[in-house]
Amino acid sequence: MSQPKTRTTKSKSTQSSQQTSKKIDQTIENAKEKGKQIASEAKEETSKLINETKQETGKIAEQQLQNVAHQINSIASALTTTADNMEDDHSWIADGTRQTAQALDKVSGSLRESDFGTLVRNFEDYARRQPVIVLGGAAIAGFFLVKFLKNSSDHVKEIITKNDD
User: Fold this and answer.
1) What one-character DSSP code corresponds to residue 165?
2) Which sign does the torsion angle of CA 147, 153, 156, 158 carry?
3) Which backbone phi and psi does 88 adopt, to 5 degrees?
4) Is 138 helix (H, G, I), strand (E, B) or coil?
5) Phi and psi of 31, rounded to 5°?
């Protein structure tokens, strides 16, 4: 009679083991699904945040672009006034100054009419067609930037030294 009890106990133990295994498998599946859901939500929120940041950056870039266009237009106007004032005494300088003002006015108009994305694409296209010119311009700009920063730091050092005395 002891044999049937052993089989029953083993059977119950096997069933319990199978139920536990099923519960573990179910818990793992639930965790996987929850993980997928969290990852999907995080991806969606990140995408929204990136889009909002792009929009805000675009707005700021557009505002700055309009500011630059306005400044260039102001310079062109000042050059035109200067050319008008020099017309009698130095007509050849006045002509060159007027041509420069007209070119700047065209640049200003182009900037006002273009959006930032278009300008970036145009620059990228130009950089692909004329990489040497772009790299040369970047090198020259870098040279002047380094010189400017060096002079600025020297000026700051002078001010600090004068204040310490």
Assistant:
1) -
2) negative
3) -75, -40
4) helix
5) -65, -40
Eight-class DSSP state of 114: S
d(CA 158, CA 45): 50
- Residues contacting residue 161 through CB under 8 Å, at least 6 positions apart: none
Task: State both tokens at 124.
Answer: 């990228």
Rg for the chain, CA atoms, rounded: 36
- Residue-wise DSSP of 80-103: HHHHHHHTTT-HHHHHHHHHHHHH
Cα gap 109→102, rounded to integer Å:
10
Cα 119 from chain centroid (whole Å): 14
**Cβ burial, residue 97 (10 Å; 0-12/13-18/19+):** buried
DSSP 60-74: HHHHHHHHHHHHHHH
Q: pLDDT digit string (tens) for 9-51?
A: 667 777 788 888 889 989 999 999 999 999 999 999 999 999 9
pTM of the model: 0.51
